[in-house]
Amino acid sequence: MVLLSLYRKWRPQTFNDVVGQDHVKTTLINAVNSNRISHAYLFTGPRGVGKTTIARILAKAANCKDPKKGEPCNKCSNCNEMSEDKSLDLIEIDGASNRGIDEIRALKENVKFTPHTGKYKVFIIDEVHMLTKEAFNALLKTLEEPPSHAIFILATTEVHKIPATVISRCQRFGFTKITVTQTVGRLEKIIKEENIKAPKEVLRIIATYSDGALRDAISILDQAASFGNKTISTEFVEGILGIADNKIIEELIQSILTLDSKKSLEMVNSAIEKGTDVSLLVDTLINRLRDIMIVKAGDENILTDYSKEELDTLKELSQNISIEKLLEIIEKLSDAKQKVKFSTPNHLPVELAILEIGKKYTTPREENKEISPKKENAPKAQTQEKPMKTNEKIALAEHFSNKKTEKEPHKEEKNPDNFPLDKSFFPVIKNKWNDILNGVKAYNHSLIACLKPSKPKRIENGYLIISFDYLFHKEKIQNVNNKRAVEDIIQKIVGRFVPIRCVVKPKENRKEVEPTILDNAADIFGGEIIE
């Protein structure tokens, strides 16, 4: 016997069993009751929220021999055949794999045949937006003048890709995400019936991670229960999902809001070392900060997914920060999220955003205090000279905010013609090269591994030419974010912006391979050559 997955086993068989989507269920129940079923429906909305499930229930209700208040009886032969996927009157088509005109022509021929046992022949086309333009044109005539025994139900997650001519011929229903509370309620019912042991905190984590897709939540529960032998712990779920512990998130939020950049960076790196996915970490931070902003604005009533204790924590966090500052922090983290997938290491944009936030809202004295190690019971600490590495970190923290002064706007920095670099400046760079390497080392250990074997060769056409022995090292430094970081460190140490250009010398060690037209274009526009 094949073991059914939980999401298939617990797929609703009646409208009332569906979680959420009350506006859709009420309308369709009334349509079945009054025998006013339309010939074409369009179900739109995110994945995993019940579009195909409600389409199947509507097909059953329309063909049920004894419907009860608009619901299928689930006892007659027609209902049983459809529930067991054996009915000839229910045809489900995957728009992704049957997207051509030939498949739609075959469907049009099939429409002509009368139902086998029921009153209607129901066609469910899932992911209908995947059909080609020609296929949509072929389907259009059938939707316009269908036979009286045919019902079309189109389901899609991307309604904007469907031609307006098709949409205008359907009754459209918009499906919404399932709330965390609704998802937790459904999961509690499932674990009770399936004898799965899981605390409510686990269910909340799963519900939050699934982002409104109930099917995803049930699948995660099924996976966790299988690995844990029907016993699921909070630590296990966080491990398989790659998310940070809620306590860590709260402490990280606290350190960001109090501008404790040092602690924030330590906690970000600690979370990543434990296997937390960077994108999920940023998403969680943004969502939590958004909720704090809502609490600050006095609209906490809309946060129905939080307990009273959790709301009290959000209120406490919102006390000493303005909405304007919250907005800017959220914006910085949102920008960082867009850069995560293209950065090496991928958590670098998050670190830069945290440093930029700390730099903007602290004075230099406060910032030094924030980043320097705290030395309790050491009254002479203020007069003692700090170690070199600490000074480097402070200088980098001051600089890696990507904030430009009015005299040196970023736009101008990208144009070397506005910053002519004379060959006579090369000895300054050469003498400071070890300091530059130390600055890069303090900033990023993986970056220094690529830059240390290189050599500054000369200044040419307004660029500092850096020569590499290996192509891999050159490409690593040429990455948009890494190149910008090295240029920023050089500027901090030598006191002016120095655009760099990377070359690699062949094994014969004769002459460096000069930059191509693409290299020049990448320098001018701040781009990166992928292939």
SSE layout:
Blueprint: H1 6-9, H2 22-33, E1 40-44, H3 51-63, H4 77-83, E2 90-94, H5 101-111, E3 121-126, H6 133-144, E4 150-156, H7 164-167, E5 171-174, H8 180-194, H9 200-210, H10 214-227, H11 234-241, H12 246-257, H13 261-273, H14 278-296, H15 308-318, H16 323-340, H17 348-360, H18 364-371, H19 388-399, H20 410-413, H21 426-431, H22 433-443, H23 445-451, E6 455-460, E7 463-468, H24 471-478, H25 480-494, E8 500-504, H26 517-525
Parallel strand pairs: 1-4, 1-5, 2-3, 3-4, 7-8
Antiparallel strand pairs: 6-7
Helix pairs in contact: 3-4, 5-6, 8-9, 9-10, 9-11, 12-13, 13-17, 14-15, 14-16, 16-17, 18-19, 19-22, 22-23, 22-25, 23-24
Please sum up the structure shown.
By secondary structure, the chain is α/β, with parallel strands linked by helices. It has 26 helices and 8 strands.
Describe the structure.
The chain is α/β, with parallel strands linked by helices and 531 residues long. It folds into 4 domains: 6-174, P-loop containing nucleotide triphosphate hydrolases (Rossmann fold); 180-241, Orthogonal Bundle (Helicase, Ruva Protein, domain 3); 246-371, Zinc Finger, Delta Prime, domain 3; 410-525, DnaA, N-terminal domain (GMP Synthetase, Chain A, domain 3), CATH 3.30.300.180. 52% of the residues lie in helices and 8% in strands. It is built from 26 helices and 8 strands. It has helices spanning 6-9, 22-33, 51-63, 77-83, 101-111, 133-144, 164-167, 180-194, 200-210, 214-227, 234-241, 246-257, 261-273, 278-296, 308-318, 323-340, 348-360, 364-371, 388-399, 410-413, 426-431, 433-443, 445-451, 471-478, 480-494, 517-525, and strands spanning 40-44, 90-94, 121-126, 150-156, 171-174, 455-460, 463-468, 500-504. The strands form 2 sheets. A 5-stranded parallel beta sheet has the order 2-3-4-1-5, with helices on one face. The chain has a 3-stranded mixed beta sheet with strand order 6-7-8. Helix 9 runs parallel beside helix 11 and helix 22 (433-443) packs antiparallel against helix 23 (445-451). The two termini are 50 Å apart.
